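Schema walk-through. Below, the input block comes first and the output block second. Nothing else is stored per chain. Lengths vary across the set, and this one has 1504 residues.
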Amino acid sequence: MAGAGGRSWRDLLAGRARKRRSPFGSAAELQGAALRLLDQHQNLAELLLEVGDSAKPGVQDGAEPRGVSPESFIVSVLQEQASKLGVPTATLAAKNAVANVERICQDSASPSQVPLLNSDQRKRLTCLLQTVKDLLANNMFCRSLFCQEMWKMKEPPVLEAVWHLHRGDIVGLAELLDRSPAGPAAVEWLCSSLCGLCEQAGDISCGDTELAQGILSDFAIVFLQHGFEQAVELGRKVEFQKVAYICRAVLQRMLAWVLDAVGKEKQEDVSMVQAARFWLNVFNVSLYGSVAPPDSLRQFFRHTLTEVLTYNPALKVSDAIQMQKEWSFTRTSPLLTALYRKLLVAFSVKESICQLQQVLESHEVNWQHVLSCVSTLVVCQAEAEQLFKDLLSHLLLKAFGNYDMENMITAFLIARQAALEGPAVFMPYSEWFKASFGSAGGYHGSSKKSLVFLLEFLSELVPFEAAPYLKVHIMFPPFVPSKHRSLLLEYITLAKTRLADLKVAIEDMGLYEDLSAPEEAVQPQAQALRDVEKALQIFENTRKIPTSVIEASIFRRPYYTSWFLPALLRPRVLPKAPDGRMAFIDSLKRADKIPSSLYSTYLQACHAMKEKVLQDDSKAEPSHAKEPFEQLKAELAVLRTLAVQQAQWEEVAAQLAVVSDRLRRVLGDSSEDSEAAPFSSPVRVAMPAPGLAACPQSVPAPGLAACPQSVVDLLLTSFCQTLLAASSFNPPDRQGPCLSLLVKMMCGHRNLLPALLGRLCQLIYHQGPSLGAAHILGLAAFVIHLSECRALIPGVEANSGASQAVPGKALSVSEYWSSLLLCRTEESFAFCLRFCTAAAAYLMCKFSSCSHEDFCALVPPGLIKKLQYLVPRLSLEARGVLCEEAKSALSWSSLSCPSLNYRRASLCLWRSALCSFLIGDQKLLVRAECLKFLERLGKLQKLRNCRAKACPSPWLPAVLPGKWWRGKQLEILAFLLSFREWLLMELEVCPEKDILSASERQDFHHWAIYQRYLPAPSAAGGCDGDLEKACAVILNAILDSSQSRGSAWCVPSFRLDLGACAQSRTSLSPEILCRLQELVLELRCRPKLLPGCSAAQRHFLFELLQGRLTGRDPEHGSALGEQLWRQQELLLHSRILLGLPASTLVTTCWKGNKAVLDCDSFFCFVNSELKNVSSRGYALSYGITAHFFRGLLNASLDCEDAAEGVNQALATCQTKCPVVLLSAALWWPRLEAALCSQWKRLFGAPLAEELARLRGWHSSASRFLCSGAALPVSDPPWLSAAFLHGAILQQSPRGRGTEALERLGTDAEQLLVALLFFSLLDLISARIAPKEGVDFQTSLEWSLQILQCLQGRGTSWPLLFHSAEGAPGRFRVLRSAASQRHTRLLPLAFYSLTPSFQQELLQQEPAFLSVALQMYIQLLQLFVEGEVLPQSDRDPTEHDPLELISAARQFLLGAIPHCPAQSLGNIQPLLSTCEELDPELAATLLHFSRPAVDMELEEELELF
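--- output ---
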């Protein structure tokens, strides 16, 4: 009770006592007067508020009162008043407390009810509550009556006042609600107060915000505890059933209020949305902690999720089909998405999807909420993809099992919704539709009824379908048996009608269109560009016009002429060498598929563009709207902040979905574009030479637009910045999923991949040595995450800048970036070491907690193998050589040279972590070393903060050794660098620019071969100690490396920047060849065969070379490509044979007790292969010939009689390998001195008989030409002819040869025929190898002279042109000695001789017409098969193949009437072939052959 000025009654009394003397005579009189005064003026309500001021009465006077305490005084006053009124003290106290609460709540300056008190109200309420607590302590306060009186207030209490009562344990909210007279009224009051609280929370101070959150949290706990109690607890608390009803009703009403706010979010009602978002704090799982049972919490969240999914189910299925593209994750209300994410935290992904399935099966749902929930799950939960696939499979099985339309539509809606989020999180709709219904094993394939059910379902969807889905169904129709094809055609007709209604012309549908996302239909121009790219891809692989293009030019003429051709003939700067596009255009032009006028216009436009480019070759990138690009940049910055804060990691997936949407807008494509190209189609990356372009060109897959470099740079920069920012606070293994998800999102944009991979090529290969430490760390981490996402990246087809990428050379993404790390020069070695070390360190630290199987799946084998190559090459310590530097402990901070840092860091990896991973060593690298290295590598200053926590745990899983190793050997072996792989890497090195000197390189080679790979088991990439196996590996590696330089995707563009180094690499590596020579010589150091052993030593070298040629699969290349490969391979074989000791060509064997020379392997290889690479047609090169003879003489040392061994070997040549003797005859002037000198050096005896005979024949031929001496004809005659032909070639002019022909004896007919054969082969050689020194005209004249001589002698020669099998015995040797190409081109030589063919020849040679016709047919076949018929270099029009064919035809047409009947009878087997190639000539032959046949029949009849 207070008086004027707010002073207490004690103060008033004390003051009055000091001012005047009391009129009362005694204390008793004074006490009685005071009691009467109190009775007359006492205010009990105000008395209850005095506790705050009377807590310590009289303190200001400096003395404690010795009377009754304030609490006991209030109690005594209440008791006295209650006795006078005749009511219980507790009842009176409760009523007065309610009155005080009502008065406090009403004393508000706000005209309307507000949920929070002001400071004065809060102070007064605090005093009241303190007094009430004292009364409760003295059992003088009735709770139940207080609750009842609270509901009798004129206005409901302020929410904060109720919270204070609840918080102060005076009256709990549940008890207050239980005493409410009407549950709906309590619900209305609570909901309005809670809504007001949420609305007011955004406009109040920070302190009041915390108060509001406290109120909401405490009440939410009450709602959960009483609204979702378990059944057992609820039975024990029957009195609280009303409370349960009210709590559930409040939560229901508030959830409806939030969901209504979702609909108003797009109306920009910001306050409403903020208020609803404040209520979402109720769904924070951490809020409830241990105050609520887990089952109750899960029941609450499950109930809420069900309510959300079933709220206001007004949308029909047809509406969902048409509108679901607006319900993707990024387009869904953030408020609804936030609600889902909070609710789903309480469940696992599997439980969430099961709950979704249960709701779908048992409730009528709100499709917008259901499908947006699907999107949220797919985006935010990586495990959801497979679980949704399982759910779709379950729904389809159930649908076709019961023919239930509801399950069908549910499956289709879920599949389409999940596909909306992109291939990074779920398979495209087209892929799902094909997988589900595209084969006989589909869900509909069990019966006709199932098929009809599916087609009826699709037909019912047609009126509501978007055009892309209809196109998917048309282009990838369900599998239908042929007998039910009409059912499918009915649906396709209906779908096409719907497309027409949507004004999507079916005629404009692309040839290879594949649209899976429900975006707007792609314009015909864009689709035509996609079709052109796909058609080019098919043409480049098959070299044939695609069938679809041919069909379109006939059956879809409007689309072909209006869209396809304009897209194909877009003006561009034509390349100097025709590329794939130009070849395709030329093929269409030759097939009359491109009008001449359109083709001319195209060439003119290309010429105009070339001139324009020459004037200004700096082209700006395609301009993109600045706003989307800035938005993308801003969202990436937000992502970076989330990655740094561990508490925000759960927001990363949602933010990445926003980033993906912004990226799609920047690229100007829809999600439909990302799925336009089939996933199996490779990513094509064009890589021009350095300096030709700023960046490697990106070649988008068919249907994808190009991506600007600025976007790629922004993404890579953002990745690196995010990595560095996250590494400033945590080591890689504690940085969360942000970086992995970011790269996975990038991989989901198919049109981004070509530019992204092309940019990696530029940064890693072209600019690698100039990159700084932070750049290297960022790129290394990026490629590790690219490998992690390898399932999302199809094969990479890298174009070297030629007409096309090599078919069948698609690389995995790990192989792609590993192939960019080429170690050739000192700079590239340093960069590769830094990059691989950084990548390995990041990989092993980032995924250190993975299981062994998962870790092995993540590790790129190329990275580990590259380190196995680099570290021992650049570090002697890694080879086991002790160095002073290696004895000191590794101190990262003490190393100032960056390159030395990396070398020491890589050595650390090699010794510890890498060795543990590869060989199961017990020593493991602790994470502290990794953190030190990454800190040094990325210059990160804050890594020291987390080092102390990271040090105790190992860098790799501690289960590597022991039992783990014994079970994982096979998996580990896949990461070991094999001998062959080591060789291929070493063959890439440029010796002139190597980081090692020549002597250091030789030491490294010896260590690798003799210490590492030769003794290693083959399972680990070694040779099992087998020298032959080692030689085979080296030989294959040399050949493969040399072949790849002309055909591999990377070499042409990469070699341009190496200068002289590239020139040196066009030859075989001399140092590796030296290592091969060393091993081959060691092979000779083995026990020789014992006498009596008939088996020869196996000649593995020729077996290996032959195996490479016969074991090749030519299916993947063209015939011309295979021919060129084989020719280059044989040239390499020749060069390798010349590089090896000559004695390797010939071995020895025992015949009886006699050692003889065995040349069979060499002869076989010459006959089958080597002779075919010779440009002379009948002789090997001088190098191979001389090498063989040197080896022959050297090997004869092992024979008892060297001369006899050589004689037998050369005698065998006449029947088994005459080409060797022909080669000796051609090159004898150069061979003779060397062979005689070698024989003399080795044996000091006269020449072997066969060698002497060769020398004699050469001398005879020379004397015959020079002095006119007689020419003895050898046996066989062709050998004398070979020496004579060689002597004639050495002499000029050939007039002496003409005169010599006349001096030949009558026994020289076979010699002349052989001489003609050699001249004709020279005639062909002059065409195919004009630089070999053989003149075509001279050879032709010489051949004609020999032919005239033969005709003058009446010698038969046409059978010389028969095949080797069909030729007479005297000609078979000559034909077998000729190369295959010269043999195929013999028709060219034959018809070059037509000027000398005399009419008498037709009568004298019955076989002439047959031979001439056979040569003509072969000539036509060569032309039809595309054989490049040789022409003159000086005048291409001279001896044009077509003119030659025409001349041959005219000759035959003129000769046929003059042929005798016997000649015409010999051509019958050739008529059918001739009729196919030249029907007119065949008719002529048939016409002139009939009289002869009739005459023969008449003669036969006369016999009877």
